[in-house]
Structures
1.
Amino acid sequence: MVLTVHHLQASQSERLPWLCEELQIPYNLNLHQRAPIFSPQSIKDINPLGQAPIIQDGPLTLAESAACVEYIIHVHGNGALALTPTHKDYPSYLYWFHFANGNLQPQLLLLVQLGHASPNPSATERYAQRLHASLALMDARLLATGAWLAGEDFTAADIMTVFTLTTMRMFHPLDLSHYPGILSYLERVAQREGYSKARAKADPELELMIEGKPPRPFRDRLKAEGKL
């Protein structure tokens, strides 16, 4: 059976169609629209936690971004886009692969949540400083490599990271204008054929969001469409 990818549009599950396009493997893409902000029942019917991405492969149903990425790479992709322990950049690959959902994305998500809670300027500033420290670290890494996070090779570490730097900024107005390494990096990403194909299939209504200034907020888009 062909691998099936369930993608909640405008979410981190955009990683999986991008991965499949880069690997050039066959897959079925099932799109699920937010209702209007959170996951619809169609996602909850597959994953009780209501989270995407989700993949189905024969009798297997699997969630969690990193787990899905590793499964696809090693079961369907013959290990492509993952570095082996003998590769000189293997430690960097491991670090940045896990940095995405272990550090960068949770920090931005916390600011998203604080934005909808009772105002707490000191907490917001404290967590914003932590996020910008992480961004500065990433920016320095990308300026040093002049290419990709692991080094000279494009890897799954990049696929894990780009969502937080692009689409997720619709949910919190993160300005990347002061991070030239990240902005150059996003330009390289946008030039990848796999990324363009995945974007066209998974989220055709969304712009690339690779500029420094934050994209239009997701709630404003919903209001303009009469969905909120």
Note: The longest strand covers residues 3-8.
2.
Amino acid sequence: MGQNSSKPPPSSTQHVFTSESPVSFSPDLINALQASPETDSTRSKDLELHIQRRVHAELERLDAEHSKRLSELQEHISSAPDSTTESIHPDARTPDQSTSVGGPDHKAAAEGDKLRDLSRQSVQKEIDLLKEKLKRRKIKEEVVQDKAVEKAKGEVVNCLRLNDRRPLDCWREVEAFKEEVGRLEKDFLGKIME
């Protein structure tokens, strides 16, 4: 049952086609085809080389276009005024900017300068307000200058030094320190909420 394959074995590797009408080729064509050194593999290699040459030519063309576009963009960027130097030195302008009269570019540049000045002024105002708030708080100085907290802290440290083997005996001093810190926190929150 399984001994025979489902496909018939090929009878030959050549296919012979018969036509109803006689086909005749000239002897010159037959001699040229037989004498030709070109085979299927050489034809495929020639085709491969031809495709590679076309791809290489196309890549060179694209590379030339990109390099041309890059040089145009670099030239455009280098000819444009530098906005970073204007923002650092707003009074230092090139002669053509200060003497140009009108035009859409001049109006756009003037509006950009106004916006830059407004944003600079608003940022400076915010910085000044924050500095004033920080000066009013002086948090660290108040904590250091609070004598009641310093005294309670000193008592806790002294008790822990005396009772280094029994730190739980210093619970009264720790509670007094906690009360002083709580009072200081309430004062601090009262100042912030104002």
Note: Residues 84-89, 92-100 have pLDDT under 50 and may be disordered.
3.
Amino acid sequence: MFTYDEWRRESATAQSSDRGKLEVWPNIIRSQPCLALMIEDDERSNYEAFRECLSGPIIDKSAITPTKPKKRKTGKGRKSAIQPFDGIDDHDERNGDDVEDLADFIEYLATETFTSWPADLRVLSYSAIQSDASLAMKYGDPLPPATVDNIVTTIPSSVSDSLISYALLSDPTSLPNLLIPVFTDYITTVTSPPPLWSTTRTTHCEICLRDWIPLTYHHLVPKQTHAKAMKRGWHEEWRLNSVAWLCRACHSFVHRVAGNEELAKEWWSVERLLEREDVQRWARWVGRVRWKKR
């Protein structure tokens, strides 16, 4: 595996010439695929959660430590006189390239680490630990030492080498100290129970986006289908009471496009509903309907 510096050099070479695009880049793909292509679709949301958790300590360690302002001698006159502000040292300003490089570095570390994990950790969720008690024990808080060892030993050495080269890690044995809090934060994030649906109320209709009209809540899994949904395994119990906040017009339209069972089986989220062309056309049309002021 490439360290971060090696990956950047090879990437730059691949993008700088036609020959590179034909010969060098495929070599990178074979040994370390393009970062954007390494994450499976069903793992994308968990990867993004991990990247966010990892970014915290990396940004903290990379941040410039503010220098304490020099004490000024009080001049003659009023002791409480306002002193001039020195401002920020120009040398402490980070330019845009530095920020982009840091973002690339975090992306690299997150991808190298996440893709090395066991599959059950990459797709871990509230639903998964509710249905499998062994997962709840394996990834409990605090993380069992055996679990930590299993995760850390799969991470390629390129991660610790890159952290050391940027003075973010003293030696490879310090890697668990850096990553255990990140792992715990990630696991807590992806296994948190869903919110109480009553607290998800939006300020606008989730289909037509109008924000000046009263809203109603639409049971995404119609209540009449709950027993059948559980019996036939369409949904787990925690999802049954999920709702979407819709205006009356959009609420009625949703119930016209499909019956209760079809809504429960196929159209049980706002995102799925908005994939339908008829819903998209309706949203564009009704979104232009505005009440005249009297």
Note: The beta strands are 216-219, 243-246.
